[in-house]
Amino acid sequence: MSVQRPSRRATITDVARMAGVSIATVSRVLNGTGPVADETVVIVQQAMEELNYTPHAAARSLAGRSTETIGLLLPRLSGAFYPPLIRGLETGAKEHGFDLLIHASVYVPQDGARRPVPLDERNTDGLLIFTDRLDDTEINRLYEQGFPLVLLYRAAPAGLNIPSVTVENKRGARSLVEHLITVHGYRRIAYLAGPRGNEDSYWRELGYREALEAHGIPFDPDLVGRGDFDDVLARSAVEDWLRRRVAFDAIFAGDDEAASGCIMALRQAGKQVPDDVAVVGFDDVPFARLMAPSLTTVRAPIETVGEEAVRQLITVIHGGEPVPFTLLPTELVVRQSCGCK
Amino acid sequence: MSVQRPSRRATITDVARMAGVSIATVSRVLNGTGPVADETVVIVQQAMEELNYTPHAAARSLAGRSTETIGLLLPRLSGAFYPPLIRGLETGAKEHGFDLLIHASVYVPQDGARRPVPLDERNTDGLLIFTDRLDDTEINRLYEQGFPLVLLYRAAPAGLNIPSVTVENKRGARSLVEHLITVHGYRRIAYLAGPRGNEDSYWRELGYREALEAHGIPFDPDLVGRGDFDDVLARSAVEDWLRRRVAFDAIFAGDDEAASGCIMALRQAGKQVPDDVAVVGFDDVPFARLMAPSLTTVRAPIETVGEEAVRQLITVIHGGEPVPFTLLPTELVVRQSCGCK
DNA sequence: CTGAAAGCGCTTACAG
DNA sequence: CTGAAAGCGCTTACAG
Predict the structure, then answer these.
(1) C-alpha span between A107 and A119 (Å, rounded)
(2) Of the partner residues B52, B57, B141, the one whose CB lies closest to the CB of residue A54
(3) If I label A73, which of A127, A252, B83, B235 is the partner at 20 to 30 A Cα–Cα?
(4) Considering the domain boundaries, does residue A340 fall inside one?
(5) How far apart are CA A262 and CA A266, in angstroms?
(6) From its phi and psi, is residue B79 left (phi > 0), alpha (psi between -120 and 50) or beta?
(7) pLDDT tens, A131-155?
(8) Interface contact B97, partner A, CB < 8 A
(9) Same domain, B247 and B283
(10) pLDDT value at position A3?
(11) Are residues A121 and A81 in the same domain?
């Protein structure tokens, strides 16, 4: 029943022996470097075929070749936000002939153990980093070595000149909230912040405040909660407001994920959206237009962020001069959850 | 402005030189192998600290050490299904001291180019594979080399003895459909299949048919559509039925994602769920209980599948005897979308 | 067009 | 307890 398993994978030496050439020649046909006689190429390729040879990448990268893959460091993968981002990254990567490898848990420096993030120069030519906590030993080590790095949705900390790609959060949030104020006349507008330290959330809140201020609406701290860009947490934040009888006529949920949590909480409490309370999100993830009511939100070009970030990273990898800071435009998307038809 | 960047990372040789010992000794303190005098340990550690040394993992794995990371090969990352899976995998991996690396696009053998999947023995001690198309050269190569492999939600093809972990799809689907028949009296029950070739979908459809047959309901091919386990596609499948005036009183959507698409389509068409049409899903992803109406579905222990799969993989990595086939139980979860209160 | 040889950064017997 | 040396599988000048 059990299949025969050769215990050893074929190496370049096996191929060379079988083809009757040197390993240097095999390497040349493998990489297309240097001239090789046509017949030799054929013989070597046959041998590789025969032996089912694939180069050992660790050896390759040790010997100084690039890995042709880029890495993505993420805190988590839940949420409608990530698929478009990853799609953008993969599109960008593929376009430039790179593969994308993902490591999806928060990097927690382990007690004493020098355990690096599993994505670095051994398997990767550069890293895309999406994280809130940048005070990271490992990141610093990579940075100081000049390892190609690009930051997603976050400006580089002062002193580190790492290119970063993000979106116009403040402007988007402001136009969204101004829409609620000027078109619908809402004045009790609640805001659900993202995770602590999250930069997107910081700017969105600023946009929210600017909009209020521009229209003479005093900022009310009671109307700021924490949704953490998460449907479940947003839901309970709203339930909490409802329980405490906080009055509001609209909620800017921080992002679309949280908006869907808000709508669930309101519906559960017997409130109609948008008739009793308007709800708006941010991001315009794919399901936003499918929701009932369809979600008014801000289109953040998530996929484009991904493609652009890859482009910058690859520029750095190729030794070029990257754009230090890319700020992609956002755009108000008016649908029904704000009260528009 | 620009920070000083040492062009070269510290190597074991640098550490050895600074500490005044041989590289063998540095290696020993690094790995805790072999005896080293306490004072020597301290000196070496100081040197490592000083130089900000991290071992070059490619060199390490070339020299024969394990990578302590496992890889996950996935066709995509969209959908509420993946986060719990990945959480399970990470829990399992962490438990055993392994890291998890993800590669998320379909492996497409490129024309002639011998481009292996970017996850293999160079950066990984074993691979978890989630895919529909297993006729994969690369997978076969790994298998034949005896590289540790475990399949997710898919039985091993005949001849390959690769451990696999999946759930009781057929039984779950059957009890779900029987609930619709016996408790609610529905007889026109539609089914939305998953992606072509998907094994989960195959078994779910079988369970669906068994339930119909057991209750004397003839199978009607007009009531089988394709939702691809995707909300958008499921939505248009239902819209299509509606347009063609296909009559049904309940839909088994294939999975929860598709169920949410069905509900959107029905709602858009002015139909009430569950009053006009009942909708049920499969998986019990986190948002299922948050939907309106809350979704009747089958709980598939996604996270447990992940943990179990890692357990098997690590057994194989350690040279142990894995369980060849693990079938985790599913359970009917009755909520409101079927018509129950 | 091709090969011999050094080197990438580590681990691991083997001596001492 | 410690070091010299071989070897992991490749790439890349350097000769020829």
Answers:
(1) 11
(2) B141
(3) A252
(4) no
(5) 6
(6) left
(7) 876 666 677 777 877 889 999 999 8
(8) no
(9) yes
(10) 34
(11) yes
Which among A27, A30, A145 is the top mutation candidate for probing chain B, defined by the most B β-carbons within 10 Å of its own β-carbon? A145
Inter-chain CB proximity A82 and B86 less than 8 Å: no
CB contact under 8 A, B76 and A83: yes
Cα-Cα-Cα-Cα dihedral sign, residues B294, B295, B299, B301: negative
pLDDT tens string A92-121: 988 888 888 888 765 444 443 445 567 776
Q: Are residues B177 and B256 in the same domain?
A: yes
Q: How many CB atoms lie within 10 A of CB A35?
A: 6
Does some domain include residue B1?
Answer: no
Residue B216 sits in the same domain as residue B114: no
What number of other Cβ atoms are within 10 A of residue A21's Cβ? 19
Query: Are A218 and A122 within one domain?
Result: no
- Integer Cα distance of B321 and B81 in angstroms: 29
Q: How many domains does chain A have?
A: 3
Specify whether A210 is located in the same domain as A224.
yes
| A100 and A176 belong to one structural domain | no
Question: Taking the model in full, what pTM does it have?
Answer: 0.82
Same domain? A177 vs A243:
yes
Does A114 contact chain B (CB < 8 Å)? yes
Report if residue A4 sits inside a domain.
no
Alpha-carbon gap, residue A49 to A72, rounded angstroms? 33
Contact status of A48 with chain B (Cβ, < 8 Å): yes
At A163-190, the pLDDT tens digits run 999 999 999 999 999 999 999 999 999 9
Calculate ∠ Cα B308-B314-B320, nearest 5°: 110
CATH number at residue B22: 1.10.260.40
Structural domain including B106 reads: 69-166+302-320
| Lookup: tokens for B89 | 């995998």
Q: Which nucleotide is nearest to B60 (CA to C1')?
A: C10
